[in-house]
């Protein structure tokens, strides 16, 4: 907890806090400790406290709490916050079908927007992560639990990080965004961008490289799991 958090105001109603310029377990748990401390203060005028991977944001009513009074209270909470590496959580097992025909059909329609039009998303992801083949990537991607570290971008979208690989940047599977936006995105799909995965609840724009779809009820086998 030695490094201080960088604070800045956004318009009239938001206080943004940058815990770290890079994502790590240390930054996450530090942000978690501070936001929980702020919530316990129950400050009049604080409307929302939203934690992200390496930052958090507070929405407030400036007519009920002065911006700098809020900032002073948050800094005081930061000084007394203790980062604990224990989470009270639920474990949810989600069957995921990798390399399924529905996702494959969609991604192959827009290969001109991909870094490597000659390969599939999974083949490309395996290669840039120095893995032997697609099966090796699936094993690395699905072989450890993931936890929801933030919710954002659209309402209800969970952003997940790997429990075993987040503590080591060199051990994370990573995939860049596509070179250009893809106009179609399947709903109920797990997607990967950077070292995070997220579940897309609705159809829309695709900006990610690696994708997999939930297993249909009629399918009896799954090539991988995200938990």
UniProtKB/TrEMBL annotation:
Q: Which UniProt keywords apply?
A: ATP-binding, Hydrolase, Nucleotide-binding
Supply one GO molecular-function term: ATP binding
UniProt keyword tRNA processing present: no
Q: Which Pfam families match?
A: CT_C_D
State if Heme is listed as a keyword.
no
Residues forming the Carboxyltransferase domain are 5-227
PANTHER family xref list = 5-OXOPROLINASE SUBUNIT B
**Protein name, please?**
Allophanate hydrolase subunit 1
Q: Which organism is it from?
A: Pseudomonas syringae pv. actinidiae
